[in-house]
Amino acid sequence: MLQDLDFLADRIGQLVEQSRQLNAERAQLLARLKTQDAELDALRQQNRRQQDEFESLSTGVASHQRQLDVVQQQAQADQAELKKLLEQEQAQVAALRRELDSARAGMGVLRDVAGQARDQIVMERVDISLLGRDYSLACPPSEKARLLEAVKLVDQRMQSIKGSGRVSGNERIAVMAAIQIASEFLSAKAPDGPLANVAFGDFKRKIEDMHAMIDDVIEPSGTSR
């Protein structure tokens, strides 16, 4: 009986010791759980702060994006307006250039007309003789020397034709002289001629000037000698 009581007492002591250990472990677990709860609360608070910061950043990014969209739209509108203004300026410049070219062309025409008018206004009377017949011509002073040379050449050619005795009559002699001079001119203008590189327009203009002066011939001032 006493042995049973001792055994029971030992057993109770073991149970009490185990209970103490369990209580100690339970206290440790509770302390650890409390610590983990505190850490979890701290993590939750940190997560909440991070979420708040993220939401704030998201709001800021959205606001900046809206501002950027507005700026881009304004820039596109400004670019379109500048392009339109540039096209208008280019069109105006092109129109001004055309007007300037037209004005320059008009000035050139006016200069030519003024030069012709000046030559027509300032004319000098020149008395000449062809085949013994006197004429009075009018020409610009600058053309007088060339006109006298041409008259001398034509008169010499007509005198030569008349002296040959093969052609009679002043008109026929004048025609033959003109044909001979034209033939010599065309020969000189041939590719191997001395005047091959001279512009035909210059000769044509001079001939037209002489024709104009001949058309302006006044009535013969004398009779055939």
Apparent shape: rod-shaped
Spatially, the strands of the biggest sheet line up as: 1-2
The main pleated sheet reads as: 2 strands, antiparallel
Tell me the number of strands.
2
Give the averaged pLDDT, no decimals: 80
Distance between the termini: 199 Å
Report low-confidence residues grouped into runs of 5 or more: 217-225
Instruction: Compute the CA-based radius of gyration.
Output: 61 Å
Could you tell me the strand content as a percent range?
Answer: 5-15%
H/E order of the elements? HEEHHH
DSSP helix count?
4
In which range does the helix fraction lie? over 70%
Provide the structure class: mainly alpha
Question: What key phrases describe this protein's structure?
Answer:
mainly alpha; rod-shaped; 225 residues; coiled coil; 4 helices; cytoplasm; 2 strands; two-stranded antiparallel sheet; Cell_div_ZapA-like
Per-chain topology:
Layout: H1 2-121, E1 124-130, E2 133-139, H2 144-164, H3 170-188, H4 200-215
Antiparallel strand pairs: 1-2
Structure notes:
This protein has a domain at 124-215. 78% of the residues lie in helices and 6% in strands. It has helices at residues 2-121, 144-164, 170-188, 200-215; strands spanning 124-130, 133-139. A hairpin with a 2-residue loop joins strand 1 (124-130) and strand 2. Helix 2 packs across helix 3 (170-188). Keywords: Cell cycle, Cell division, Coiled coil, Cytoplasm, Septation. InterPro entries: Cell_div_ZapA-like, Cell_div_ZapA-like_sf, Cell_div_ZapA_N. It is found in: Cytoplasm. Its main location: cytoplasm.
